[in-house]
Structure formats: C-alpha cells, structure tokens
Amino acid sequence: MQNNFNLNDGGMEEIVEKSLLPTNDVIFHCLFGTVGNENITKNLLEKILNKNVEEIKLDLNVNLIREHYDDKLGILDVRIKEKNGTNYNIEMQNTSSEQLPQRILWYWSKLYSSDLKRGKNYNILNKTIAIIIVNDGINKFDEIKKYETKWNIREEDYKDIILTEDFEIRIIELPKYIKMKQENKVRINTWLEFILNPKWKGVAESMEEEDLIEEARKKWEKIISDKKIRDRALRREVAELDRNTAIKNATDKGFEQGIEQGKIAQKRESAIKMLRKGSSIKDIMEITGLKKAEIEEIKKDI
Question: Are residues 36 and 43 in contact, defined by beta-carbon separation less than 8 angstroms?
C-alpha cells in the first residue's frame, strides 16, 4: 500500500528538501543511471577513478525504477558498461551497516559473472568496479584517515602483487570528505560537492567539467519537477527515517528486540532486491540468513 504525502506540508519541509538531493538514491539513480545522461556519468566516473573512461552505456538500468515502484528500502544501483567491456556498479547509500562490505562484495560478484553464459570461457569475463558513496561514517574505517578507499585482492606478504586486475571496489565516505575539506586536507571534488548540494556554484577544475556540472544541475531540476519522482524519493526518505528511528529508539531503551528488527529489515531489503534480479531462494538463504518460508512470504509481496 502506497503512502500519500503532501509535499507542501510545512512539517515535512526539511525531509522533503533532503529527499530531493542526489544523496537520495532515487534522485541519484534518475540523474546518473538514465539513458541520455552518459556524459555526466562518464565524468563522474573519471573523477572518482582519476583516469579517462571510454564511451559508456546506461541501458542496463532501464527496468530498475518501475512506474509504480513501491519498494521502500530496495537497493537502487547504477549499472554501467564501458566500451572496452568494463562493468561499473555505483550505489548511493545514506546510511551504513555492518553488512555493507558483504553486500558490496555480493553485488560485485553478480555483476562480474553476468557476462559469463553457460559453455563460455572465463576469459570473456570483464573487469568489474563497484563504487559506493556513503552519506554516513563506516565504523570499521575509523582508523583510515582518507575519505576514499580502493580495495583489491592482494597476497598477504607480497602486498604489491594483486591476484587479478578484474576486481576493484571503491568506497567514498561523504562525512569524511566534508571534514577533510573543512580542515583544508583535501582538494575540492566538484562532483561530490554537487551531490551534496546541486546548487553549488564553486569553481570546477576545467571548463568542460564546469559545463557538465551545469548540465547535471539542469537535469536535476527537471528530475525534481516530476511529481512521481518527488513522491517516490520522499517515500524512500521517510522509510529510511522510520527504520533508523526505530533502531535508535530501541537502542536508547536497551531493547535488543528492536535491534534485531532493524537487522531483519536489512535482510529483507537484500532479499527483495535479489528476488527481483531472479536469484534462487537457495542463494538468498545463503546470503541473507533468512529461512525459506520467510523468503517465500516476501516473494508474495513483490
């Protein structure tokens, strides 16, 4: 059942404003995952990877946001295919969780293996890079003093030797970026500034980048003028707030049951996404820890 929100309700102004930023994954997906927006998405990738990227395709995202999308907390990622075959997966995440690393790894593996059909050789597999932008701190990374981390598979004693160039994960923590910028410890990243505030009018590193930021701003304005997208983004924001509030209240009162409910909600989130991608119940059980009956019950609701 869909929630109906009045976007002009004064009591919702702050929530509505936040829901229209690119830090909301619905807005992020519409902006960087829509066919026709390849130029801005390509430049975003180049800024993150610090290298040139060939022509990209965004047609893998066509069915990810449905006309009547009502999954409150399903994961919306942006899937990209570079002309040279490299796969990219970009996810905008407002909050962190203990399961975040496992989830990133699982999505990376699914995208990496998607090119391998029955009877084909492993040499057709393409390099796959997963990128997650988190608008929250990651407790596990507290000792890491930089806002962006790059992960590969390395030999324990010979750390310069990478198992395969096909594997790469990038994680960006926006709170760390903001803090380091304020302390003058890092150069301004124009795309991160835009994601945090699309009305940002700072100085870009080049005229081309400045033009692309302006193009992205115009596309963002068009996106948030669409009432269906605004409603969808607001539902996501409110659902996230509801979940976080429930977990916080349970923690404050010392109710372990509330914490467990929060974990179950995260498992359901992953299960819904996996079901929609056609994953088997066995795989979902293995990844989420949910029982078969629980997964079958979830399946009835989507």
Answer: no
Other Cβ atoms less than 10 A from the Cβ of 88: the count is: 25
Side-chain half-sphere exposure of 20, counting CA atoms within 13 A = 22
- Global pTM value: 0.74
Query: Would you call 35 exposed, middle or buried from its count of C-beta atoms within 10 A (0-12, 13-18, 19+)?
Result: exposed
Using only C-alpha atoms, the chain has a radius of gyration, in whole angstroms, of 20
Least confident of 155-169, 171-185, 285-299: 285-299
Q: Give the tens place of pLDDT for each residue, 6-32.
A: 444 444 577 778 889 999 999 999 999
Written in H, E and C, the secondary structure of the chain is CCCCCCCCCHHHHHHHHHHCCCCCHHHHHHHHCCCCCHHHHHHHHHHHHCCCCCCEECHHHCCCCCCCCCCCCCCCEEEEEECCCCEEEEEEECCCCCCHHHHHHHHHHHHHHCCCCCCCCHHHCCCEEEEEEECCCCHHHCCCCCCEEEECCECCCCCCCECCCCEEEEEEEHHHHHHHHHCCCCCCCHHHHHHHCCCCCCCCCCHHHHHHHHHHHHHHHHHHCCHHHHHHHHHHHHHHHHHHHHHHHHHHHCCHHHHHHHHHHHHHHHHHHHHHCCCCHHHHHHHHCCCHHHHHHHHHCC
Q: Render pLDDT for 191-224 as a digit per residue (tens, 0 to 9).
A: 999 999 999 988 888 899 999 999 999 999 999 9
Instruction: Give residue 242's pLDDT.
Output: 62
Taking the CB of residue 281, how many other CB atoms lie within 10 A of it? 16
- Which residue type does 257 have? Q
